[in-house]
């Protein structure tokens, strides 16, 4: 699933980005921590022109997504992998399927403007939930695209898609950066 998640993030970021809106990759590099071991540090900037801390449990097969994002080919209730035989995901799949992947995301949203902070942060959390739900549905239903990739293959795919995605977003041409004065 590690390969699938990396593949999904790169492809999803590209597909969901357009001029002025989307995910800009600032940094994506391997790190080693004495306590936690090896990992990947990724810093992204999400450009929102059209999204507080809480726990949210998602079911990639049965939680509703917005109609404009729905594609039957990306619906885990109908998808069956030709390479692995996994799917479709039936009601109660989390209790009956093995193996199962559980993903935890820690997301921080700060918008420190009096009078707007709560609304903007709630919008951002809602938008992030939507992105995560759609993205993990896609990771599952795109598995035949990524299943036989190596980590080197997917890292090359990531680099290629990050460049294309940053170009598609139009990073550097327009944008607003608001920083709190010291």
From TrEMBL:
It holds the Pfam family IP_trans. InterPro entries: PI_transfer, PI_transfer_N, START-like_dom_sf. Residues 1-50, 56-162 form the Phosphatidylinositol transfer protein N-terminal domain. GO terms for cellular component: cytoplasm. GO terms for molecular function: phosphatidylinositol binding; phosphatidylinositol transfer activity. This is Cytoplasmic phosphatidylinositol transfer protein 1.
């Amino acid at each position: 699933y590690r390969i699938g998640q990396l593949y999904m993030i790169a492809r999803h970021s590209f597909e969901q980005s357009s001029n002025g809106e989307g995910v800009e990759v600032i940094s994506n590099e391997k790190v080693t921590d004495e306590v936690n071991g090896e990992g990947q540090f990724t810093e992204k900037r999400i450009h929102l022109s059209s999204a507080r801390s809480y726990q949210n449990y998602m079911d990639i097969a049965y939680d509703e997504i917005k109609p404009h994002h729905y594609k039957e080919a990306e619906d885990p209730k109908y998808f069956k992998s030709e390479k692995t035989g996994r799917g479709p995901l039936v009601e109660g799949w989390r209790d009956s399927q093995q193996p199962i992947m559980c993903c935890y995301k820690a997301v921080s949203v700060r918008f420190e403007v009096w009078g707007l902070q709560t609304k903007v942060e709630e919008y951002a959390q809602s938008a992030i939930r939507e992105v995560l739900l759609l993205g993990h549905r896609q990771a599952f239903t795109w598995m035949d695209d990524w299943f036989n990739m190596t980590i080197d293959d997917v890292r090359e795919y990531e680099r290629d898609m990050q460049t294309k995605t940053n170009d598609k977003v139009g990073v550097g041409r327009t944008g607003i950066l608001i920083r709190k004065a010291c």
